[in-house]
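Worked Example 4.2. Consider the chain below.
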Amino acid sequence: MYATTDTLATTPATQGGRSRWLALYTLCAGMLMIVLDVTVVNVALPAIQDDLRFTSSSLAWVVNAYLIAFGGLLLLAGRLGDLLGRRNVFTAGLIVFTAASVLCGLARTQEMLVIARFIQGVGGALTSAVILGMIVTLFPEPREQAKAIGMYAFVASAGGSIGLLAGGVLTQAISWHWIFFVNLPLGVLTTVLAVKLIEKDKGLGLGRGTDVPGAVLITGALMFGVFTIVKPAAELGWTAPRTLLLTAVTLVLLAGFIVREATAATPLVPLRIFRSRTLTGANLIQALSSSGMFGIFFLGSLYLQRVLGYDALEIGLAFLPTTVLMGLLSVKYSEKLVMRFGARRPLIAGLSLIVVGLALFTQAPVGGNYFIHVLPVLALLGLGGGICFPALMGLSMADVKPEDAGLASGLIGTMGEVGAALGLAVLATLSATHTATSSKSPLQALTDGYHFSFAIAALIVAASVAIALTVMRPKKQPKPVTSEALACEAA
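Applying the procedure from the previous section yields the following structure tokens:
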């Protein structure tokens, strides 16, 4: 069922020119909060461990509790945006995320922090799942949409490096509690601006898509899946009985969801959206590219820390060229590239540069020099990401009907989150296994383990290039009707 004319008439696309860009800045501010939080927390983990007396294994739950809630709820949150109104879901997510941040900052026990982080993940999912859908609704014209998505891609990528710097400064200058407290003024300001600057949309209403069994099945499948990736698979291995059992539970829930969506009168995720080759291909590319990129940023940071001896602040500064290049291309040139060449060619070119960068990282030695062995890699990753990710975001929403924009936004976010978690678990496990079985010196064995994972990551992203070349083929345009052809037909 398509949205009615009355519903579509009240969407944010009706906002004026200047107010639309102010609304975009507000959406990007919300996204920046979510992205900052991930890397800020990673930098502060040692201080959190010392203060609250976490063990090495239990400390992982400070990250995993957030990931499980965030990855598990993204798809449901995106669909709720279509049904209840995307601005409503966006602002509700900001409120939940901000309140949970305060709870994290006030935490004096391990249990309180882990629970608050889970609630933060819920708020993060609600906030981020609908942003891309709101952007394509605000900017239906191709040139403006490409520019807006470029800005969104810049914020989503640049926030990570800013978080590394901010986390180091706040943790060292004040305390780890303040990495969460800073979200209070940011969250309140962004919520107020969202209410004032983003036009309220009605949504389709719960009666147009309420599917409680489907919601329970897909949320359960995603949560079990993310939990399996970040916990037993990463710690015990992929063939451990517990990992296999949880994987089986995930697959059963996923199969039940597919059956439910194929038979439900008002499905949570209408399976018809996957008839779009562009949408399906974009989500596969998102999962694979996120697997390679996220895992490499994590392992690359470990290489800088454990092999080259960098501290947290130096690691953040080391990754700044990636952020600068990605931001410059995303904001200033991505729109021009998409309008000049279409989205597919920049996507392929950008992914190919990432593959080359990852392959080059396999040559970084034990006594590596930053300018010779690291900076060229980070430059290629920044160039590739700045070219391909805005194009990919645009392609993921290209064939989506207005009433499915929130769902498609949540879907691409879910694929990125699950892909990142899967890539991190697989690459980290392969790296550790390769290091453990090496007979070389400890530092050389550690470096070889990183090299092995860098090579696997390059192959993963190369697979996404293959999908872009095959699945994302441009549709054949009908031949123009010439006067000669019309004369022949008349004869």
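The chain has three domains: 8-207, 211-265, 270-473. The two ends are 44 Å apart (CA to CA). Compare this with Example 4.1 before moving on.
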